Amino acid sequence: MFTTLVATALFLANQTSVDLTHTLSEKTVVYPGKTPFSKVICSYYESGYRLDDIHLSTGIGTHMDAPSHFCPEGSGIEAVPIEQCYGEACVVHLTSRVGTNADYAITKADLEEWESSHGPFPAHSIVLLHTGWDKHWDTIQFCQTDETGVSHFPGLSGDGAQLLVERKVSAVGIDTMGMDVGAATQFVAHNVLLGADIILIENLANLSLLPEVGSTVFLLPMKIKDAPESPVRAIAIFNKAKKN
Amino acid sequence: MFTTLVATALFLANQTSVDLTHTLSEKTVVYPGKTPFSKVICSYYESGYRLDDIHLSTGIGTHMDAPSHFCPEGSGIEAVPIEQCYGEACVVHLTSRVGTNADYAITKADLEEWESSHGPFPAHSIVLLHTGWDKHWDTIQFCQTDETGVSHFPGLSGDGAQLLVERKVSAVGIDTMGMDVGAATQFVAHNVLLGADIILIENLANLSLLPEVGSTVFLLPMKIKDAPESPVRAIAIFNKAKKN
């Protein structure tokens, strides 16, 4: 027992962690049609303690999409296995390709370039797509809407999504408002991935701080009965020497 | 890089996980005075996807208390360092002592007995108090109220809390509705622990499945700006051989 305790303690002692989660507040930008976040103070130490209430869309801030977000017969958040919510991260840094292009769709070729350096995305790994868009968080540029009402932000193409289904990854995360590009109408990436029971994480923060390989991420949602989405707390843990 | 990826993958491959979180639903019992959980379906695939909204007290279900829950000048949930939200678990199994006693206050001596087997609770560890009360979850017995309106459930005594402050642990969790016994009016355990910036987790589930030492727990709250409490997803990871 003692040996195990020390061994695990040493494992953690050599690690550093990064918070991949944006802060939820009334300022949080939401996808068109979703209910914004609100909070009220219900009791301010009158009985010795403070109580607050919150009201929000389940798909707000840094959040998880369960299969039932797009698939009527799919699993809800409560049924996502916890083993699917943590694992080895494969971080694809794409900021130089995306640049300022709010319609950039990450291609299969972009993902294959990562694989040319590191080998195929392992089964049960968690693929994180770093577009650099989180620099616009909490501003109108994060989810730009043109004069025709169409949203614009980078996302994943359908053939990119299909590659990740073939690799049998556990989850795919991105630092934009949605897995499909903002201008999408068919939501191919959502449907392809969620249809294969691969969970999605949107609105991630701080992906620039992660190494391409070698970190473990934890993407833990609330355990809400029969919900299609949930806010998550997303963190990464990796060897101190690997922090950029 | 490849060596690190394989090493971490092997670390995870040898582990098993346990969900320590109760499911949130309209049935969830709340502490007297707190707002119950509610959920509505706002959009049912009319645009291709489903959207739900939720309304709740931040201190509902399996949840975390930040210092500001009891201390007006204390940190809120957003400011709790993520390093304090995971770590080595020290699990104190107390079911045979607590039995059916809804007023049982876990003593300093109870904690010292654990230490007589395993040594002092390490600094930065997470102490989990297993009373067995989670078997009453989602029933009126979980938070019994007598004819005078006083609640009854087991909790931690003030001297037990003081010992854990001296040990400089990161967090203390329990499987009852609150860290103090239900009949408390002064909330000594809450004030002693939160006053020392030790975070609390209440309404934990499945602590019976954890070994006394050797597991790592992750207790991840939502990242809500200026909130005194938050629902958490709480999980434990440990060597497969250690699962009871």
Describe this structure in a few short sentences.
With 244 residues, chain A is of the alpha/beta class. In chain A, 18% of the residues lie in helices and 29% in strands.
Keywords:
homodimer, 244 residues, alpha/beta, Glucose Oxidase, domain 1, seven-stranded mixed barrel, two-stranded antiparallel ribbon, 5 helices, globular, disordered N terminus
Distance between the termini of chain A: 35 Å
Content-based structural category of chain A: alpha/beta
Low-confidence stretches of chain A: 1-7
The CATH homologous superfamily of chain A corresponds to Putative cyclase
Question: Could you estimate the helical fraction of the residues of chain A in percent?
Answer: 10-25%
Stated plainly, the CATH topology of chain A is called: Glucose Oxidase, domain 1
What is the topological layout?
2 copies of one chain form a homodimer.
Chain A: H1 2-13, E1 15-19, E2 38-44, E3 50-57, E4 63-65, E5 86-93, H2 95-98, E6 105-106, H3 108-118, E7 126-130, E8 144-145, E9 151-152, E10 155-156, H4 158-166, E11 171-174, H5 188-195, E12 199-202, E13 215-221, E14 229-239
Parallel strand pairs in A: 5-7, 6-10, 7-11, 11-12
Antiparallel strand pairs in A: 1-14, 2-3, 4-12, 4-14, 5-13, 8-9, 13-14
Helix pairs in contact in A: 3-4, 4-5
Q: What would you say this structure looks like, in words?
A:
2 copies of one chain form a homodimer. Chain A contains 5 helices and 14 strands. Chain A has a single domain, classed as Putative cyclase (Glucose Oxidase, domain 1, 3-Layer(bba) Sandwich), CATH 3.50.30.50. Chain A has a 7-stranded mixed beta barrel with strand order 4-12-11-7-5-13-14. In chain A, strands 2-3 form a two-stranded antiparallel sheet. A two-stranded parallel sheet of chain A has the order 6-10. With 244 residues, chain A is α/β, with parallel strands linked by helices. Chains A and B meet through helix 1, strand 2, strand 3, strand 5 and strand 13 of A and helix 1, strand 2, strand 3, strand 5 and strand 13 of B. Strand 3 (50-57) of chain A pairs antiparallel with strand 3 (50-57) of chain B, so a sheet runs across the interface.
